[in-house]
Design goal:
Number of strands: 0
Number of domains: 2
Largest sheet: none
Order of helices and strands: HHHHHHHHHHHHH
Strand content: under 5%
Distance between the termini: 60 Å
Number of helices: 13
Helix content: 55-70%
Length: 401
């Protein structure tokens, strides 16, 4: 039952997750050195994880003619992933002795990969196909040396990366970025835990693997050995996903604010065209226009307020009774301003002066921060009802935001 549940999860879900991150972060590979190293880490890890599904392992064995070639591919990919992860940590820390450490690491990695390949070709037994063939020979001297190289590389890289991530965490301000670095530190610390546990497990089990009915080795594993690598992959994905996810959420929030402000903005800049260049754009076009949405929201709010102030300047000097409908003592100031703006736009379209300001608007002028002003205008926009046919007489101009 454990095999039926745990191995399919590891064999299929983890590669899909890793390749999804690779595809998502491919554009970043053309950016900084740190981003390239992080992308290469996920590529290497995804390659190693992809050798697990049986049909892929069989295809590799058919192409190469080597029955257990997936074993070597998986472990070389692990070594490369560990190397690129250290490159990433060193790149974001930029310490004085980074270049020397990188050269030493490169020598260490090349030596490890060369040793693994030589052991695989000249010393490991190859009497079973697939990566699980190694499980039937844990008592073999060549297998012991081979595993010692793997666990040394993975353990040292995990320990160093966990230490560097954790120490770098103190230099990151609280927020999503620190949460991401914490997840990366936890992922690499979990990798070290997996290495220690796997060494203990192999020493405990020894060479006790049995063969199934087809004469193939039964994998020497347990749920913990399958779960720990999966946890590391998930934590790595979370570590690189949390900061950009927050950026995406902010983008969606600002895009929604643009959508909500659009009817009010479109009417006002049509009535007072000098506050913005060009013709008001449609809501649909807003969705596909590139740019910084936070700045776009601020510009739109400033244009709305500038237009509203221009309409206020158009009010008569005398203060007759305001024609704006009275909502009573419990009147919402945002609703009052929305109705006054609608009436002012209608008056401007007829060539008439704007109506007198209600007293509640006089008391609410000025004193807001940009963020407070945007929040206020969103309330006004929610209460505003667009004026029809106010833009028909205005000739179209080139549209700019």
């Amino acid at each position: 039952m454990e095999k039926a549940l745990m191995r399919p999860l590891f064999e299929w879900l983890m590669p899909l997750l890793a390749w999804s991150v690779v595809i998502w972060r491919t554009p970043s590979a053309f950016g900084s050195r740190a981003n390239r190293a992080l992308w290469a880490t996920f590529v290497s890890g995804a390659v190693g994880l992809t050798t697990r599904p049986p049909w892929i392992a069989h295809a590799l064995e058919t192409v190469t003619g080597i029955g257990d070639v997936t074993l070597l591919i998986k472990h070389l990919a692990i070594v490369m992933a560990a190397s690129f992860l250290l490159d990433y940590v060193h790149a974001i820390q930029e310490r004085p002795h980074h270049k020397r450490a990188s050269r030493l690491k490169l020598v260490f990695v090349i030596a490890a990969m060369t040793t693994l390949t030589a052991l695989f070709v000249f010393w490991l037994p190859h009497d079973y196909t697939g990566a699980d063939g190694l499980d039937a020979h844990y008592g073999h001297p060549g297998v012991q040396v081979y595993l010692a190289v793997i666990y040394t590389v993975y353990g040292v890289a995990s320990a160093q990366a966990a230490l560097l991530f954790w120490t770098n965490r103190r230099n990151v301000p609280p927020g999503p970025l620190r949460a991401g670095v914490t997840c990366l530190a936890a992922a690499t610390a979990n990798g070290l835990l997996y290495t220690v546990y796997r060494i203990y497990f192999v020493l405990r089990e020894g060479d006790s693997t049995t063969l199934d009915a087809d004469g193939k080795p039964v994998p020497l594993t347990d749920p913990v050995s399958e779960l720990l690598p999966a946890v590391s992959v998930v934590l790595l994905v979370l570590g690189v996903s949390i900061p950009p996810t927050r950026t995406l959420l902010h983008y969606v929030r600002d895009q929604y604010a643009l959508w909500r402000l659009h009817p009010l903005w479109a009417d006002l800049v049509t009535a007072v065209p000098h506050v913005v260049l060009g013709t008001p754009t449609s809501r649909l076009r807003d969705l596909f226009t590139p740019g910084d949405r936070t700045i776009d929201v601020a510009h739109r709010a400033f244009a709305i307020r500038d237009a509203a102030l221009a309409l206020r300047d158009d009010t008569p000097t005398a203060v007759p009774a305001s024609p704006v409908p009275d909502g009573g003592a419990e009147e919402d100031p945002a609703g009052t301003e929305a109705r006054w703006l609608r009436l002012a736009v209608q008056q401007r379209a007829r060539g008439l002066p704007a109506p007198s300001l209600p007293a509640t608007l006089d008391r609410s002028v000025g004193g807001r921060t940009p963020r407070e002003e945007i929040a206020w205008l969103l309330k006004v926009a929610a209460a505003y009802r667009p004026v029809e046919n106010t833009r028909a007489a205005r000739p179209r101009q080139p549209s700019v935001r």
